[in-house]
Amino acid sequence: MIRINENYLKLQASYLFSDIAKRVNRFQQAHPDRQIIKLGIGDVTRALPPACIAAFHRAVDEMADDTTFRGYGPEQGYPFLREKISRYDYQARGADISADEIFISDGAKCDTGNIQEIFAGAARVAIPDPVYPVYLDTNVMAGRTGSYKQGRYEGIVYLEGSRQNGFIPELPDQPVDLIYLCYPNNPTGATITKTQLKTWVDYAREHQALILYDAAYEAFIRDESLPKTIYEVDGAREVAIEFRSFSKTAGFTGTRCAFTVVPDTCRAFSADGQSVPVHSFWHRRHTTKFNGVSYPVQRAVEAVYSDEGRRQIQQLQHGYLENAALIRKEMTALGYDCIGGENSPYIWVDGRTDSWQFFDMLLEKAGVVCTPGAGFGRCGEGYIRISAFNSFENVKMAMKRITAALSSK
Ligand SMILES: *Cc1c(COP(=O)(O)O)cnc(C)c1O
Q: 221 and 326 share a domain?
């Protein structure tokens, strides 16, 4: 009799986005003539940059000719792409990361989900609340938690975000081995300073812990004093793995390309206390279970690093940041405290009421869809997330309607 992995039975069904869809459909049916504006799900709306499309087409043509055709590529990614990432994303910022320390993949979702399997089942895990749910659910699947009680899994150390700490959690008050951090943050849009990030790096060094740093939104940072990579912090090379993605930063959510950085100097420990290089473990996992991102996609992403590509993605990000600034400005003018929306495409609004109530109110009075903060964890209750991923026209219209609805209250 084949038994299943019972840890999956502990998982809470994720009703968030299906609940949202249900409410939106119900509203649309009741009001067929109302045009709904979606500022909910974190997916981009604008086309891939022309430089990427041109490179994509050229690479497809290479695949059509025996003399330039490519079969399996290197599992870790083509050197042409890893070298550009190393040079432009790291060396240019004074962060000492080499091409060999970079692993190209088909998504930061898979990488942040898969990374935990190279660590012990007994590893003590610290996860923020509110949070991007992948970190939590993959640790539940792996059996690192007990059951779910009152909105929490037993065995997880929750790093609580709040109004008081501006959604930058305090250091854990009990020993942990793996720490998930994400800045600029999804869902809150909060950013972390180099000094704040250094306290985490120092903590990890002192406690022989490891930081899993999700920097999927780094490209939205415009404030030059904020760290774009954790490796700008001294000492991070020994205690941090970084995840990046081209999804939100260059529009590759549907095309799929991301990467993970595992420095050679990053260490974990065997049961007998020997230090082992994490890089060789991730290398083994990645090359055993993954056969590389498609060649045309890697060429398309390479074009992100050309002069015109960099200009074009800057423009793309600039558009979303303008939306974010407008949302933040209007919500603040209405008297709501906001986090994010600067150096981030998300605005986290303190609704001073039940998350779902605020969601329903925006839908019914303004025809605007947001995401209830409670869907990201217990500490998200009372907040909503508004996403800047839409056209400027739609965002302008959405804010006009919200302003009209809320100021007439
Ligand atoms: C969107 C997102 C990702 C990743 O996306 P991929 O499309 O899988 O590369 C990773 N982390 C966070 C926090 C995200 O919001």
A: no
- For residue range 272-313, what is the model confidence (pLDDT) as tens digits? 999 999 999 999 999 999 999 999 999 999 999 999 999 999
Domain membership of residue 328 as a residue range: 6-47+310-407
What residues are in contact with ligand 1 under a 6 Å CB criterion? 42, 107-109, 112, 132, 182, 186, 214, 216, 245, 247-248, 253, 258
Query: Which stretch of DSSP H or E encloses residue 383?
Result: strand 383-387
Tally the domains of the chain. 2
Provide the mean pLDDT of the chain: 96
Are 129 and 22 within one domain? Answer: no
Pair of tokens at residue 136: 């939590």
Distance (Å, rounded) from C-alpha 168 to C-alpha 129?
10
Which of 305, 335, 359 finishes a domain? 305
336 and 368 co-located in one domain: yes
Query: 9 is written with which tokens?
Result: 């039975």
Query: Whole-model pTM?
Result: 0.97
* Cα 306 from Cα 228, distance rounded (Å): 19
Q: Tell which atom from ligand 1 comes closest to the C-alpha of 253.
A: 7
Mean pLDDT score, 32-37: 95
pLDDT digit string (tens) for 244-253?
999 999 999 9
